[in-house]
Amino acid sequence: MRIIDLSLPIDEKAFEVHDVDIERISHRDGIKKLNKVLMSRTLKGKLAYLFGRRMITKDDLPDEEFLSLEIVHSPVHVGTHLDYSFHYGSRSEGRPSKTAEEIPLEWCVQNGVRLDLCYKQPFETIGAEDIRRALEKIGYTLKPLDIVLIYTGSDTLYGTPRYFSDYPGLDNSAIDYLLDHQIKIFGVDTMGIDRPYKYMMKDFLEKREARYLWPAHFYGRTREFIHIERLANLGALPDHGFTVSCLPVRIRQTGAAWARVVAMLP
């Protein structure tokens, strides 16, 4: 079996619109952190720590090193992740929206199909007819629970400002097409499923119609769906004949969750 990684990292060095920070505590500095944590539970311990007392010293450790520790401060929408209905609104299909920890895991390991939509321009949307033609081109009929991966090539811009401004969005008709074929999860290699912010806002400010603002996301209030954002390496996949695993990290009561998405080929 061959495994292709379809995920982008959480990287504090990459250009992001949200603040991302990874506090990296080295092996040498780990002992300081350990003592501070151990001695901060009581006022007496805090005072002892401030005056230089330590429960464990570096001399007590092999090689004078403790364990490394990384503390990640990041929104759940940075890195490759799954969005569920709570992200779109408080209610979906007339019921309370579901959070990412409620995503059925059996939906997350299924046959995959890649649809090549690389010809779409950043200001355009991908509609139902585009999906139908892409399927017709590869001679594939969607099956219930297939995980559909929409390939635009936008992941090549990751780490730059253009990653947030140069990609096509999804039209609600495309979402309807997939859901009508009993698809539960679909994914994109873009930072979002709506058109870039600059195009949405331009149309909204010119026409003052709310339908131009995040229409694909807000459609999750009408029809329940799960989608993967920030996929990568879709160009390395065949059109079909592979399995996708997109198991979400179990984070309590969030609208999204990070995932290490991979494709498994025979």
Quick tags:
single chain, 266 residues, alpha/beta, Glucose Oxidase, domain 1, nine-stranded mixed sheet, two-stranded antiparallel sheet, 7 helices, 21% helix
Characterise the protein shown here.
- By secondary structure, the protein is an alpha/beta fold.
- The chain has two domains: 2-15 and 75-265, 3-Layer(bba) Sandwich (Glucose Oxidase, domain 1); 21-72, no CATH class.
- 21% of the residues lie in helices and 22% in strands.
- It contains seven helices and 15 strands.
- The protein has helices spanning 30-39, 43-50, 85-88, 128-138, 172-180, 197-207, 215-218; strands at residues 2-5, 21-25, 69-73, 81-83, 91-92, 95-96, 109-116, 125-126, 147-151, 169-170, 185-188, 226-229, 240-245, 256-258, 262-265.
- The strands form four sheets. The protein has a nine-stranded mixed sheet with strand order 1-15-13-7-9-11-12-4-14.
- Helix 4 packs across helix 5.
- The model has no long low-confidence stretch (mean pLDDT 94).
Write down the overall mean pLDDT: 94
At the third CATH level, what is the topology name of the largest domain?
Glucose Oxidase, domain 1
**Total strands:** 15
Q: What is the level 1 CATH name of the largest domain? A: Alpha Beta
Q: Helices and strands: which structural class?
A: alpha/beta
Low-confidence stretches: none
Strand content: 15-25%
Order of helices and strands: EEHHEEHEEEEHEEHEHHEEEE
Calculate Rg over CA atoms: 22 Å
- What's the CATH superfamily of the largest domain, by name? Putative cyclase
CATH architecture of the largest domain: 3-Layer(bba) Sandwich
